[in-house]
Design goal:
- By secondary structure, this protein is an alpha+beta fold.
- It has a domain of 157 residues: tt1808, chain A (Alpha-Beta Complex).
- Helices cover 42% and strands 18% of the residues.
- Strand 8 and strand 9 form a beta hairpin.
């Protein structure tokens, strides 16, 4: 501020040649922090591992459709702003109270919500991390439930193991019930089966859903065909009844015409007989 005032009173030019004007140092640009969405590593080690991830992802995505929730699979979860190397990629994670839909990655400080449930489909290369370091990290992040699934049944004690956060540590889930999801989980061959707690209904996997939709379509088409046949039968019966009514009406009309014809003939005969009677009365019997 002193230098600026001195410049104004002395009217000296503000050039680099004037030693009384200090140079303002340039402020270095802060480089943008990049949070990658991929590290180029494969998603899964085996087909069974990949299949279990994709099915779990799709089943839960369908289940939570219409809710303020998202289900992400094998995408980076960033948990420390400004430190892009502090990240992890859960096989499947469910987050509530966020906008539905996919993301390239998930930053906790931007979304304001920690995943409520995380699934790791364990494999030979990940089992140690799944059982120790990831479990510890998810507890620190306060992930409510952590589930491990071994599709081959070779790498952990139970094919399906769930942990529920109590305080700062995880406790083993013994009833296979997920409180955040309101689902019961079960081992079904190389997949996790999901059942609604309110109805007991199973959440269908895509192939089962396609079969169910096909069966529903066939049943609907059959019902529609049956209804159409019934409609046609009813229409035929209605037409038959209408024809019978018209036949009866025709018969009634014929009988009425016959009655009227007979009445006319009787009237004519009576008139002729009356005329003959008057004639006889006036002129006597008709000559033979």
């Amino acid at each position: 501020m002193t230098a600026i005032l001195a410049t104004q009173t002395s009217n000296k030019p503000t050039t680099e040649s004037n030693p009384e004007i200090p140079e303002i140092p340039e402020i270095p640009e802060i480089p943008e922090i990049i949070y990658p969405s991929s590290d180029g590593k494969p998603v899964a080690e085996t087909y069974d591992h990949l299949y279990a991830i994709l099915i779990t992802l799709e089943v839960l995505r369908q289940y939570l459709t219409g809710q303020q929730a998202t289900v992400l699979g094998n995408q980076f979860l960033y948990y420390s702003q400004g430190f892009p190397k502090l990240r992890i990629a859960p096989d499947v994670m469910v987050i509530f109270n966020v906008q539905p839909g996919g993301r390239d990655n998930y930053k906790i400080w931007e979304e304001g919500q920690v995943p409520a449930v995380i699934f790791e489909i364990t494999s030979p290369g990940t089992k140690d991390q799944d059982l120790i370091s990831k479990k510890d990290l998810y507890a620190q992040l306060e992930v409510k439930e952590y589930w491990l699934f071994d599709p081959k049944g070779q790498w952990i004690t139970e094919k399906l193991q769930g942990y529920r956060l109590r305080g700062e540590t995880y406790e083993l889930i013994t009833d296979n019930l997920s409180e955040p999801l309101q689902l019961r989980l079960a081992v079904e061959d190389k997949l996790i089966g999901f059942y609604r707690l309110d109805t007991g209904e199973k959440l269908l996997i895509p192939s089962e859903l396609a079969t169910a939709l096909e069966e529903e379509t066939l049943a609907r088409q059959s019902a529609e065909a049956q209804a159409e046949n019934e409609r046609q039968r009813a229409e035929t019966e209605r037409q038959r009844a209408e024809n019978e009514r018209q036949r009866a009406e025709t018969e009634r009309q014929r009988a009425e015409n016959e009655r009227q014809r007979a009445a006319t003939e009787r009237q004519q005969r009576e008139e002729i007989e009356a005329q003959l009677a008057r004639y006889r009365q006036q002129f006597g019997e008709l000559p033979e």
